[in-house]
Amino acid sequence: MNTHTVDIIYMASAACFILALKWLSAVPTARRGVITGIVGMLLAVGGTLLRPEVKHYEWIAVAVVIGTVIGVPMAMMPMTAVPQRTALSHAFGALAAALVGTAHYFTEHEHLTRFTMAALVLEILLGFLTFTASLMAFGKLQELIPTRPITYRGQNIVNFTLFGAALVIAVMLILNPLQSGLFLGLCGLALVIGVLLIVPIGGADMPTVISLLNSYAGLAASAMGFVLGNKLLIIAGALDGASGLILSIIMCKAMNRSFTNVLFGAFGQVQTAAVAGEQKSARSVAPEEAAALLENASTVMIVPGYGMAVAQAQHAVRELYDTLTKKGVDVKFAIHPVAGRMPGHMNVLLAEADIPYDRLLEMDDANRELAQTDVALVIGANDVTNPAARTDKTSPIYGMPILDVDKARTVMVIKRSLNPGFAGIDNSLYYLDKTLMLFGDAKGFTTQLVKNLATEGGGFH
Amino acid sequence: MEADLLSYFYVFLLAAFLGLEIIRRVSPLLHTPLMSLTNAISAITVVGSIVIAGERQTTLSTVLGTIAVTASMINIVGGYLITYRMLRMFKKAAPKKP
Question: Where are the alpha helices (DSSP H) in A24-113?
Fold first, then answer.
């Protein structure tokens, strides 16, 4: 098959990817987007197999079979595990780019131009770095390694020194591509930097970091395109890079923080000392009373957070939604952009539990409605509801956009205890006169609410 | 080759800006499926991997290429499948009964 035909197939494939992402923008067309993406990928793979330089198919076939055998179960994971699954697949994507770059270097390094070498260096740097960084993120999300940010003195200096060393080696390699020892050194350095980059990152920052790694994996693919002179790779990689970039910007804005602050700030370490202080009193109520209040409300806004995912409470929440809806209560959900461990995490969890997506409100819409809401029910969310972000200039989260839960007529918070959340910041919401604390496990308490609502029968208000 | 070089940068530039414009319009509701779909699309590295594995230039390159095809394949199969699974879960509320 001549290369001209292959080029045309690649062009069609690129068009498919662009349409796939365009159609993914809204729920009604999203599935068509996925199908188009699959067609694009089939074209890309088919076109590549037709290329004249691909002469042997045995190993490719073996790899395709193994990849499929591993890929299918990875797609069947429960929705609560989606953040770690995503981190793991970023690792695979980055690894592929890095290995192709390495193989290309060792077969071709005698005739690489400076430009190709520069692209290749970028490809393996991004590839290996993203590979270990994603594995670390996976480890933290799966709780194989401590999720707390780990910091030590001079951490940033160590990181910058290693990064500086990597840049120096990169430049030396571009000037003289034949130094294969240096090339291996660069690979090793990139692997180490990837690990060190994630060590100081805490769980609450994972949405930003995962988005950033998504972007890096895309850019590595794009760099591969520059090396191989393949425009399809450049386009698909650039689309992916752009997507990760936008998501990380959205996540940063939703936390009122900058990239540098996320990567080098190590949130949640400094301010633990500030928490102690005067004892404030919070009011707590039993499930019976809480159920009665919910039943008599006409509008309820549920605010889910990572705690709901940890407690696997999404199905119990669905039962609560069903029961209240049947009793004529208008129930909606307020979703903060950084609730959970990756962008959109809460939405897929609630969708999995069969909660209709038109009941899920974005932050701005939710805030517009919260002032007219009878009961705001917070399940497993903490910092994203803290009014201190609006009012207290000394608070570490001051300026972060929050869900204005405190504007609802009554606030209920399901929480294990009054202990401050992950970031170690006390939440003044819990001490408001209108706030009722529902102490207990998110899943257990929600189930009790449902039971109480069911036994009260009737439902006149 | 040098003329090609510049055209690669043009392609990258245009694709990046197009990507930014398209992705900005994606509803936050779908940010998780968006990430799993872009993840599947970035498995386009399979193109480079297949060439390396199929050329069979050296043992090293064949081994690395085969691992790369495997890794890309995991993301292609896993990425598209889970995205489709997620999207099937997004349902609208049933129309209210009288």
Answer: 27-49, 58-75, 82-108
DSSP at A404: -
* Alpha carbon distance A78, A305 (integer Å): 17
First to last CA, chain B: 70
Residues 6+ apart with CB under 8 A from A60: A49, A54, B50, B53, B54, B66, B69
Q: What SS3 state is found at A216?
A: helix
Token reading at A316 = 């119990």
The β-bridge relationship of strands A375-379 and A410-415 is parallel
Among A27, A48, A347, select the one facing B51 at the smallest CB separation: A48
Enter the DSSP assignment of B68.
H
Give CA–CA dist A178/A226, Å, rounded. Answer: 20
Q: How many helices (DSSP H) and strands (DSSP E) are in chain A? A: 17, 7
Q: How many residues does chain B have?
A: 98
B26 φ/ψ angles, rounded to the nearest 5 degrees: -70, 130
Residue A176 token pair? 């003289």
Q: How far is B98 from chain A (nearest CA, A)?
A: 12
Whole-angstrom distance, CA of residue A194 vs CA of residue A216:
11
Encoded tokens for B35: 């990430």
A234-269 tens-digit pLDDT: 999 999 999 999 999 999 999 888 877 776 665 444
Cα–Cα dist A149/A219, whole Å: 27
User: A337 CB near a chain B CB, below 8 Å?
Assistant: yes
**pLDDT tens digits along A274-325:** 444 445 778 888 999 999 999 999 999 999 998 899 899 999 999 999 999 9
Residues of A acting as catalytic residues: 383
Q: Where are the alpha helices (DSSP H) in A76-200?
A: 82-108, 114-141, 155-175, 180-198
How far apart CA A321 and CA A308 sit, in angstroms, is 14
Tokens at A407, concatenated = 């504007």
Provide the shortest C-alpha distance from residue A273 to chain B (in Å): 35
Cα–Cα distance for residue pair A295/A315, rounded to 1 Å: 19
**Tokens representing residue A80 in the block:** 């609560």
Q: What are the CA-CA distances from residue A127 to residues A28, A220, A263 (Å)?
A: 35, 6, 18
The length of chain A, given as a count of residues: 461
Report the alpha-carbon distance of residue B71 to residue A313 in Å, rounded.
33
Q: Tell me if residue A436 falls in helix, strand or coil.
A: strand
Q: Which residues contact A437 (CB under 8 A, 6 or more apart)?
A: A282, A283, A284, A285, A412, A413, A415, A418, A430
Three-state secondary-structure class, residue B29 = helix
| Intra-chain end-to-end CA distance of chain A, in Å | 74
Helix (H) / strand (E) element for B76: namely: helix B59-89
User: Which residue's entry shows tokens 């500030």?
Assistant: A274
Top residue of A11, A31, A56, A100 to mutate, by most chain B CBs within 10 Å, is A100
Q: Over the stretch A357-386, which tens digit does the pLDDT of each residue have?
A: 999 999 999 999 999 999 999 998 888 999
